[in-house]
Write a structure and sequence with these properties.
Layout lengths: L3 H4 L1 H6 L19 E5 L2 E4 L4 E4 L2 H4 L8 H11 L12 H16 L5 E6 L2 H16 L5 E5 L8 H6 L3 H4 L9 E4 L4 H7 L4 E6 L2 E2 L5 E2 L2 H14 L2 E5 L14 H4 L5 E4 L10 E6 H4 L15 H17 L1 H17 L4 E7 L2 E6 L5 H11 L1 E2 L1 E2 L4 E4 L7 H15 L1
Parallel strand pairs: 3-15, 5-6, 5-7, 7-10, 10-11
Antiparallel strand pairs: 1-2, 2-3, 4-12, 8-9, 11-12, 13-14, 14-17, 16-17
Length: 402
């Protein structure tokens, strides 16, 4: 299999003349090869400029090549990268303390952090925490249809998209799925084998579907009544993306455990499981781990992200710029409505318009968005996106849709 970009002469040169695809083909054929970025802008190998309204799927929330994050990574790389989990390091310790403070300020109480490298790994840690909390025979986890929790086997089992499980059967046991937004469907699945419920407050990959706060509050009440853990996957919604530090703050709940990744590193691969102290304490030394849990390098990026997000009021920026983008898109006749929160938005196209016909044309024009399904364009630009960039993107979308 050759990738389209590798058939392009310029790209061939960049790839030292290779005419075959060097990657295992799990990602399909990439249409563009990028070389550099700055803020909301990206440039491909031919020098063409793009506006990135996807941020590497809600990752680069402070923009590409953010100077503060870059400096922190560089300084840390010149000081200390890694020491193993036989020892502590000052950077990871500071980052964990700050995450606990943010969670406490968000009303989730006092807790503890386990660092890892991705969203899927954070969810694997959450699955193991739920199983240890439940004990033998009480290991099942209920998640929602349409959810997305990652690609490792456990996180995939947690993902409520049975079609994605098929080729990997048999899947791990102990996962079941409720209708997102339907409390009766959740209640009907609870039996003595269930340990936890795990939800996103906005299903990002599922089409930017926001949970009604009444629903999430009912879920929390039900979990409390039945003694189940409530775990919220904030991998896509966390770190100011939705206009608050965490998506659960919109939902009016205080979860027992939360998973993070994506925006917390601004592109540095890092994730985390946070759990309230009484829940975290079910884990004992040896129950979980990772060589790269809490490396000084990754957590230096986390510290820089938190400090920059505070300085810029990134949550406030998401609200303000999200409103501008929503307003501009809502005026377009081929857009039925815009949903989501802050700068995690889904523009629902009217009947008869398919994202497959829109998204590639926008890319050709220099705007990166994502057709999250056949009828929804997902927009998640950096939270630092400017008014002018938003207006430019709206103009491009308007011209394609007309
Ligand atoms: N959870 C949610 C809500 C996600 O959106 C994603 C990725 O899109 C994941 C988990 C998996 O994260 P990662 O790709 O870092 O493993």
């Amino acid at each position: 299999m050759t990738h389209q970009f590798l058939e392009n002469e310029t790209a061939k040169k960049v790839n030292a003349g290779h005419d075959y695809c060097p990657f295992i083909p799990v990602f399909g054929s990439p249409p563009v090869m990028f070389e550099k970025g700055k803020g909301t802008e990206l440039w491909d190998v031919t020098g063409k400029r793009y506006l990135d309204f996807l941020s590497g799927i809600a990752v680069v929330s402070l923009g590409h090549a953010n100077p503060v994050v870059a400096q922190a990574i560089s300084d840390q790389a010149n000081t200390l990268l890694h020491v193993s989990n036989f020892f502590a390091n000052t950077t990871a310790t500071k980052a964990a303390v700050q995450i606990n403070e943010l969670m406490s300020d968000a009303g989730a109480g006092s807790g503890q952090v386990f660092f890892c490298n991705s969203g899927a790994e954070a969810n694997e840690a959450a699955i193991k925490l739920a199983r240890k909390f439940g004990g033998r025979g009480r290991h099942a986890i209920i998640s929602a249809f349409g959810s997305f929790h990652g690609r490792t086997l456990g996180a995939l089992a947690l993902t409520g998209q049975p079609a994605k499980h098929e080729i990997f059967q048999p899947m791990p046991d102990g996962f079941r799925y409720c209708e997102f937004g339907d409390i009766a469907s959740l209640e009907a699945l609870i039996d003595p084998t269930v340990a936890a419920v795990m939800l996103e407050t906005i299903q990002g990959e599922g089409g930017v579907i926001q949970a009604d706060p009444q629903y999430t509050q009912a879920v929390q009440a039900l979990c409390k009544e039945r003694g189940l853990l409530l775990i919220i996957d904030e991998v896509q919604t966390g770190f100011c993306r939705t206009g608050k530090w965490f998506g659960f703050e919109h939902a009016g709940i205080s979860p027992d455990a939360v998973t993070f990744a994506k925006g917390m590193g601004n592109g540095m691969p890092v994730g985390a499981l946070w759990a309230r102290r009484d829940i975290a304490s079910v884990f004992e030394p040896g129950d979980h781990g990772s060589t790269y849990s809490g490396t000084a390098l990754a957590t230096a990026a986390v510290l820089a992200v938190i400090s920059e997000m505070k300085r810029l009021d990134a949550a406030g920026l998401a609200v303000k710029q999200g409103a501008r983008l929503t307003q501009g898109l809502s005026k377009l006749s081929k857009i039925d409505h815009v949903r989501g929160s802050g700068l995690l938005l889904g523009a629902q196209l009217v009947a008869g318009v398919d994202t497959k016909d829109v998204v590639p044309v926008l890319l050709e024009m220099g705007l990166i968005v994502n057709g999250v399904n056949a009828t929804t364009i997902r927009l998640a630009p950096p939270l630092t996106v400017s008014d002018a960039e938003i207006d430019e993107a709206i103009e491009m979308i308007a011209s394609v849709l007309s």
